[in-house]
Amino acid sequence: QITLKESGPTLVKPTQTLTLTCTFSGFSLSTNGVGVGWIRQPPGKALEWLALIYWDDDKRYSPSLKSRLTITKDASKNQVVLTMTNMDPVDTATYFCAHSHWNRAWVPYWGQGTLVTVSS
Amino acid sequence: EKVMTQSPATLSVSPGERATLSCRASQSVSSNLAWYQQKPGQAPRLLIYGASTRAAGIPARFSGSGSGTEFTLTISSLQSEDFAVYYCQQYNNWPQTFGQGTKVEIK
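^ inputs. structure came back:
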């Protein structure tokens, strides 16, 4: 059974750096093809892919946010970490962790999501 | 970046009726398209991938069609649990992009 769970702060101040951790089980990020990424959803708005990291450490970033994002993995701990710098109120959103695969890139498994509010 | 446009924004349907949702890509995505259902406070749920393949456990009343730039999700007979927001997603290229969603509401 594949599960993913997000953890991190629920409130950050403008200009601060957000660090989110995805802890997963039921699969290994050392397995060929496997990827884990982050998708966010502002309140009442659509979904947006942020970043994705694959088993071989290949990384993909949203072009519009690339300068602010870093994604890393610790396969031994079954964790993926996303950092986003210079947070702004427009970054207020629910952040989801997601399981993916390089040639089956739909998302069958999602974390429950964590709401991050950016406010002073 | 491929832009996904869904229509209509809101669809009012009576239980038992058919619902037809559309998704258009700004450039061809081949058949690399998925559909998701999202209810308030929940993560999206995968319904369809490969434009027309139902995901595990998805009822047969959900069907997908299309390729290239035009796609359709059909719900043949709406059940009470189907009232939700539906998103399409292209995964042909990075960045993978989602449509803005279609809300299916009770008429």
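The mean pLDDT of chain B is 97. The radius of gyration of chain B is 13 Å.
thumbs up if we can close this ticket
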